[in-house]
C-alpha cells in the first residue's frame, strides 16, 4: 500500500494563513460589498451587478481613469529615460560610488506623506521657496491651488523627484554587472558610443528595466498619499486620480457598494496591464 | 598582417611605481613574426593578459613601445590597430542575429553591404556556422558563441593579429579539442599572426609553433614546444611544463663537478662561467630510471597514470619523480636512480648553466 505523507501540508499552512489574512479575506469582503447595498447596522441589500453597471457608464469614473493613465504615462516617460541617463553618468568605481548611491537612495527613504507636505510647502506662492521664487523673482504665475496645469506639473515633478532613484539604482545594478570584456570587444569592433548603449548596455539592462517599469507602473497607478497631501485632488477635480476618487466615494460619500465595485475594477486594470506588459517583455526570452 | 615588436615594455597598474614588484610587466622585448602561431603561457597573475591588452590597445603601457611593422602604435586606439581579440567569456551582441554579429565590425567601419555579405558568408563557412546565420545569437551554446566572437575578429580582411585570451575556459571538455583543432586549421587558412594566452600547457603546446613562457611579469623562455620540454632555460619552465614537472635538486659544485649530497651527478656538458649563487640540478622525470646502482632512494609514492607509472622517491631529503613503464616498485622499498646524462642540467639561480651537447660537438 502506498503511504501518503500528509505532513507537508503543515509547512504550507503558515503561508496559507498569511495569504488568507492579507489578501483573500479582505478581498472577499470587498467582493461582498460590491454586490450589496448597506446603510450600516449590518443591514445588507442584494444589488447584483448594479454597482458595476453604474460605474462603467459613469463619466466621473472614466475621467479619473483617464487622469490616472495620463499621470502614470507621464511619469514613466520621464523617469525611465532619466533614470537610465543618470545611471549611465554615475561612476562605476572609486570613492564617489557610495556617495552617489546614498544620494540616490535618500528621496526614497522619506515617508510618502512627508514628501507630499514638503512639496506642498515648497511650492506655496507666499512662503514656499520655489513658489515665491517663481512668482516674485521670475514673475511666472504659479499657484497649484488655482491652476490645474501648475498642479499637474507639481505632482509630476514630485513623483519624478521621489522615484527616479529607483530606476537609477536598478539600471545601475544592471550596468555594473556587464563584464569589461563586452566594452573591450566593442572598442575593438569599432562600435560607437550609441552602438555600445544600443547593443550592449540596453539589452543587458532589459531584465532590470522590466522590473523597474513594472514597479513604477504599479506604484504610480495606485498612488494616493502624495497627491492627496499635495493637492487633495484639486483644483476642482483636475488631479483626482483613481485612488483619490475611490476614497472620496468610500469615505466622503460613504457609498461603500460602488466604492467596492470600483476597487475591484481598479485592481483588475492594474493586474491586466502588469500582466500584459510582463508577458510582452519576457516573450523573447522564452524562445 | 604585420610583424609586431615590443620594445622595452614595462607596465604598472600603480600611478607611480617605485619598486620592481609594482610592475605587472618588467621590461619585455619581444618580436612576433608575421603569420606565426604563438602561445603565451604562464600561471595566473604572471602578466600575460596585461601584455595582451597592451598589444590590442586596451591598455597603454607605462613605458616602452609597440611597433606594428616598425610603425609606433603605442598610443593608437584598439579599433585603429586592426587587431582582433577573443575573450575568456564569449562576447556576443545578444539582440542581433549571428549574421549581424559577424557583420558588426565591418558595418562600423562603413563597408558597403555587398562586401559585408561576401566576408560574412566566407567566415561563416569557415567556422561552419552558415546554418545559424539567421538565428538570434543569444540562444547559442557557449562553443558556438565563442566561434561567433572569433568570427567577428576574423571577418576583417586586414586584421594584423588575432589574440585569444584563454578562449576555451567556458567550453565543455569534449568540445575543447574540436575548437582547438578548428583554431589550428583557421591559422593555416588565413595565415594571420595569432597569439594564444593560456595557463594550460596542453593548449599552448598543441596550438603554437612558438611558446612564450612568462613568470612574474617577465618572459622566461621562448621556444618551440620541444625546446621548452627538452631544455628548459629556467627551472620555472621545467616545473610549469611537463606532468609531473622537472625534478630540481639542490647541489654543490666542486672541481667543475656537481654533487647531490655526496653523489656525483654527471651533467650534459661543461658548466658555463664561474657559478655563484643557488645551484640546482634539473632532470625531467622521463629521464630518471630505476637501476641496479646509482643514487640510493626510498619510494614514497607510486601512482598509476595509465600508460606510465609515476614513482616518487626520497633521496637526501629531496623528492625525485621518475616516470617508468609498467608497474612500479612497492612503496617504502629502497631503489637506485639513474639520470640520463644528456638530459641532466645545472641551473644557477634558476637559469640554465650547462652547455648543451650539440654546442660541444
Automatic annotation (TrEMBL), chain A:
Listed transmembrane segments: 9-35, 69-88, 95-112, 118-138, 150-173, 259-281
Chain ranges of the ABC transmembrane type-1 domain: 65-277
Cell compartments where the protein resides: Cell membrane
Keyword Transmembrane: yes
GO biological process: transmembrane transport
Principal location listed in the UniProt entry: membrane
Keyword Transmembrane: yes
GO annotation, cellular component aspect: plasma membrane
InterPro entries: MetI-like, MetI-like_sf, Sugar_ABC_transporter
Pfam families in alphabetical order: BPD_transp_1
Topology in membrane: Multi-pass membrane protein
Swiss-Prot/TrEMBL keywords: Membrane, Transmembrane, Transmembrane helix, Transport
Similarity remark: Belongs to the binding-protein-dependent transport system permease family.
Name the record gives this protein: ABC transporter permease subunit
Organism: Parasedimentitalea huanghaiensis
UniProtKB/TrEMBL annotation, chain B:
Domain ABC transporter: 4-241
Keyword Membrane: yes
InterPro entries named in the record: AAA+_ATPase, ABC_transporter-like_ATP-bd, ABC_transpr_FbpC, ABC_transpr_MalK/UgpC-like, Mo/tungstate-bd_C_term_dom, NA-bd_OB-fold, P-loop_NTPase, Transp-assoc_OB_typ2
MF GO annotations: ABC-type ferric iron transporter activity; ATP binding; ATP hydrolysis activity
GO CC field: ATP-binding cassette (ABC) transporter complex, substrate-binding subunit-containing
Pfam families in the cross-refs: ABC_tran, TOBE_2
UniProt entry tagged with the keyword Zinc: no
Coiled coil segments of this chain: none
SMART domains: AAA
Range of residues in the leader sequence: none
Protein name per the record: ATP-binding cassette domain-containing protein
UniProt xrefs under Gene3D superfamilies: 2.40.50.100, Nucleic acid-binding proteins, P-loop containing nucleotide triphosphate hydrolases
Keywords, comma-separated and alphabetical: ATP-binding, Cell membrane, Membrane, Nucleotide-binding, Transport
Originating species: Parasedimentitalea huanghaiensis
Similarity section: Belongs to the ABC transporter superfamily.
